[in-house]
């Protein structure tokens, strides 16, 4: 699919994969509508894209609030005339042992990661049917296997993967392609955000640098998959290996996960 003159709406576009996707789509000629809560970051990103000759529009949006995605879609169409690609990217991770989590923690996780993605799909459905466009869900390798101390996050990403798989067949008759993206470890803020969704700027990333794919490289791979309307793509070699092993050697994966303490804990907490 040629991306020049296509219109893309991206949620969670103020940082990380979302911001990198905005730059990459714009670089390939698409107009980008950037939705997130941190308006000042969106506006700075829009200015950057404009300075490089691209088209961008900032949209303050909280995916956990009913009606905000509908307004974001309407504003996108008002600004650019259509919608071709909707990227449900907004998300964060709740990480802690079960004994330390409450039902409110699980609800908060699902409200953003699952219902935020669902709101994006529902709000963009009519416009994507009109353009015979593409609906993109940014999931996680944790949607295939669930590390210890990550039950809330893994549950949410398994749900996103199930949503993408179901809608892939359901929306095909409307000409809408559904792309599920499962990144492994990518450079982003997600591991420095606590269970309340607050960013800890100074918190170290617990994942070694050699395991983290640069965000820009991940964005290039994701945009290429979206342009090809691929049903599913796993990003990073380590993630591909993990998914392969979970499918073909589940006992080994279960043993490895039991021996691990999870891929991260909440910023500010240290497991004993």
What this model shows, in words?
This protein is of the alpha/beta class and 272 residues long. It has a single domain, classed as NAD(P)-binding Rossmann-like Domain (Rossmann fold), CATH 3.40.50. It is built from 9 helices and 7 strands. Strands 3-2-1-4-5-6-7 form a 7-stranded parallel beta sheet, with helices on both faces. Helix 4 (103-113) runs parallel beside helix 6. The relative contact order is 0.14.
Summary tags:
alpha/beta, seven-stranded parallel beta sheet, 272 residues, 14% strand, globular, Rossmann fold, 9 helices
Number of strands: 7
User: Which blocks of ≥5 consecutive residues have pLDDT under 50?
Assistant: 267-272
**Span between termini:** 50 Å
Shape, please? Answer: globular
Record the strand order, biggest sheet: 3-2-1-4-5-6-7
Report helical residue fraction. 40-55%
Classify the beta-strand content into a percent band. 5-15%
Give the helices and strands as they follow along the chain: EHEHEHEHHEHEHEHH
User: Please, how many helices?
Assistant: 9
What is the gyration radius calculated from CA atoms?
18 Å
Domain module tally: 1
Query: Mean pLDDT, as a whole number?
Result: 89
What is the name of the CATH architecture?
A: 3-Layer(aba) Sandwich
Q: Provide the CATH top-level class.
A: Alpha Beta
Examine the coordinates and then state which fold CATH places here, giving the name of the CATH topology: Rossmann fold
Class by SSE composition: alpha/beta
């Amino acid at each position: 699919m040629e991306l020049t003159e296509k219109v893309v709406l991206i949620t969670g576009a103020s940082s990380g994969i979302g911001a990198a996707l905005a730059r990459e789509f714009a670089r390939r000629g698409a107009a980008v509508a950037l939705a997130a809560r941190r308006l000042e970051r969106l506006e700075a990103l829009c200015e950057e894209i404009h300075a490089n000759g691209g088209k961008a529009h900032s949209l303050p949006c909280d995916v956990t609030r009913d009606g905000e995605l509908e307004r974001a879609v309407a504003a996108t169409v008002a600004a650019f005339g259509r919608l071709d690609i909707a990227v449900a990217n907004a998300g964060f991770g709740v990480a802690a042992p079960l004994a330390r989590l409450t039902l409110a923690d699980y609800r908060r996780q699902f409200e953003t990661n699952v219902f935020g993605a669902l709101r994006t799909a529902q709000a963009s459905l009519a416009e994507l049917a009109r353009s015979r466009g593409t609906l993109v869900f940014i999931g996680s390798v944790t949607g295939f296997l669930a590390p210890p101390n990550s039950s809330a996050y893994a549950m949410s990403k398994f749900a996103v993967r199930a949503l993408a798989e179901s809608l892939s067949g359901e929306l095909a008759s409307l000409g809408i392609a559904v792309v599920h993206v499962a990144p492994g470890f990518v450079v982003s803020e997600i591991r420095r955000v606590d269970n309340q969704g607050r960013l800890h700027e100074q918190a170290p990333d617990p994942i070694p640098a050699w395991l983290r794919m640069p965000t820009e490289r991940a964005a290039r791979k994701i945009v290429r998959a979206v342009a090809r309307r691929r049903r599913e793509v796993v990003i990073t070699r380590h993630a591909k290996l993990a998914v392969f092993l979970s499918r073909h050697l589940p006992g080994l994966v279960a043993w490895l996960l039991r021996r691990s303490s999870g891929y991260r804990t909440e910023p500010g907490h240290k497991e004993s």
